[in-house]
């Protein structure tokens, strides 16, 4: 039988044991708390960064794939082709180039840029009415330095958004020191964009696209051999344009006056995929020899693609020159296009 003293002893032991257990428990809680404070908290799971696949878009005037970008307006620049202006800057980056006679049997270029932006373009030359008309076909911002009386009236009337060197000589347009006037006016693409912004011109609408051949269609072209093409604007050899097809690169090169057409800054050649030559009636309009060119009536044409020539008819559709065969528009080989406007197709020859 357990005595009273034994019970007291037992109770005292239980009490001591309980106190000890509480101390141990408290110590464990403090230790666990300290450990949790010293631990580096786990970072939340990071979601993997999703790599975006570049979306491709087709440039409307070349049919060539480019990285997608906001649609941009075409820019058309009148470029000098006098021998003292060669080699020019920017021609290799133009999507479409028109070569047209001006007075004095000298040709000028209307270079249309949309898929590429050259750092510098020039020499820039004065406007003629037919350059304005062709630019309107692409709803382009028109760039020139100077104008004929007829072109001046059209520009002053607001017929087309334009930036002209007469108003911006020495600001947007710069005179280079390696050429003599009037062959020394240049403009940068940045200054074109600045001038457009200052004038409040909208520049975010791309031109209506041209029609292009598929690779299979381009590989099945038929016609006469035309690895070498000669386009004479007069008897002056200085303005005879020659095109040579490189079957390996599948591109045409161009030369005039016996010299290859290249970029002034880096000697990069102008490489072309489509050459179109159209016959249009030319008339002399004034005592200065300025010309009127009928770009409305349509007429005979040649189309040169992949070293092959096709006879065609041309039509003017909303300001654009299009070649047709049997009433169907000819599609272009994806790439760059050069359009020569001559008084007579008899001035054109071609062969192997």
UniProtKB/TrEMBL annotation:
PROSITE patterns recorded: PROKAR_LIPOPROTEIN
Q: Residue ranges of the DUF3048 domain?
A: 61-201, 229-339
A Pfam family of this chain = DUF3048
- The superkingdom of the source organism is Bacteria
Q: Where is the composition biased (Basic and acidic residues)?
A: 39-54
Q: Which SUPFAM superfamilies match?
A: YerB-like (SSF159774)
Q: Where is this region: Disordered?
A: 37-56
Protein name (record): DUF3048 domain-containing protein
Q: Which organism is it from?
A: Siminovitchia acidinfaciens
């Amino acid at each position: 039988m357990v005595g009273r003293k034994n019970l007291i002893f037992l109770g005292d032991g239980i009490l001591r044991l309980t106190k000890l257990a509480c101390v141990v428990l408290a110590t464990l809680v403090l230790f666990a708390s300290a450990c949790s404070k010293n631990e580096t908290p786990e970072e939340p799971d990071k979601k993997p960064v999703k790599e975006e696949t570049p979306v491709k878009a087709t440039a409307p005037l070349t049919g060539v794939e480019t990285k997608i970008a906001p649609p941009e307006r075409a820019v058309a620049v009148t470029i000098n082709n006098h021998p003292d202006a060669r080699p020019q800057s920017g021609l290799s980056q133009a999507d479409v180039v028109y070569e047209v006679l001006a007075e004095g049997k000298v040709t000028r270029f209307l270079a249309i840029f949309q898929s590429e932006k050259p750092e510098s373009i020039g020499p820039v030359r004065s406007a003629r009415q037919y350059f304005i008309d062709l630019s309107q076909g692409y709803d382009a911002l028109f760039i020139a330095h100077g104008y004929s009386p007829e072109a001046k009236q059209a520009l002053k009337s607001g017929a087309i958004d334009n930036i002209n060197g007469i108003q911006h000589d020495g600001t947007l347009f710069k005179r280079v020191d390696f050429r003599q006037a009037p062959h020394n006016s240049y403009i940068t693409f940045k200054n074109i964009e600045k001038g457009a912004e200052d004038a409040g011109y909208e520049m975010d609408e791309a031109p209506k696209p041209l029609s292009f051949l598929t690779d299979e269609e381009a590989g099945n072209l038929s016609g006469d051999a035309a690895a070498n093409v000669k386009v004479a604007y007069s008897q002056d050899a200085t303005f005879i344009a020659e095109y040579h097809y490189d079957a390996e690169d599948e591109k045409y090169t161009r030369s005039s006056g016996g010299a290859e057409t290249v970029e002034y800054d880096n000697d990069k050649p102008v490489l072309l995929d489509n050459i179109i030559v159209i016959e249009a009636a030319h008339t002399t309009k004034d005592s200065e020899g300025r010309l009127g060119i009928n770009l409305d009536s349509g007429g005979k044409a040649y189309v040169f693609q992949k070293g092959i020539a096709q006879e065609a008819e041309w039509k003017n559709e909303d300001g654009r020159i299009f070649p047709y065969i049997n009433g169907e528009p000819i599609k272009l080989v994806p790439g760059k296009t050069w359009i020569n406007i001559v008084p007579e197709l008899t001035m054109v020859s071609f062969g192997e």
